[in-house]
């Protein structure tokens, strides 16, 4: 079983369990139009929460392995990726997905680039959701001497070359959650904090 099958299987199991809990806790139709409270999601939103969490976990993974099929399902056809500054915005699913297979990205992957995502904070309101969180980009530092830790093989240390604040906007269309807009800002910075605070 490959990693993609594991991810899909875990998502199905989580969604099934949460859906059962929601069905037991909510009368039919009771969740329509509900917004997430300040104390967190109610039982009727847990299935959606798990789906979105798994999609975001898969976003980092698929970027590292160049899994375009996952990214194609992740982003809506009219998705926008706002990179900020001179890089501007990338518009449309094809252009967004194309970013993980361009020459620059392939070269970075060959150098050992790894995306490490922090647990996102997710707010759900009906058929829309917003998630915010940090992503670190980590690579091996060949300039540093190799070190061994607790008997592990000696290796060069890892360094964080970039950290970003991210805001993902989701919409549920035809029963499926997809990203309609992703905004990225370098962190730490005032722009990153403003992005995380934006409602």
UniProtKB/TrEMBL annotation:
Pfam families: SnoaL_4. It comes from the Bacteria. Residues 46-183 form the SnoaL-like domain. InterPro entries: NTF2-like_dom_sf (IPR032710), SnoaL-like (IPR037401). This is Nuclear transport factor 2 family protein. It comes from Sphingomonas natans. The lineage of its organism: Bacteria, Pseudomonadati, Pseudomonadota, Alphaproteobacteria, Sphingomonadales.
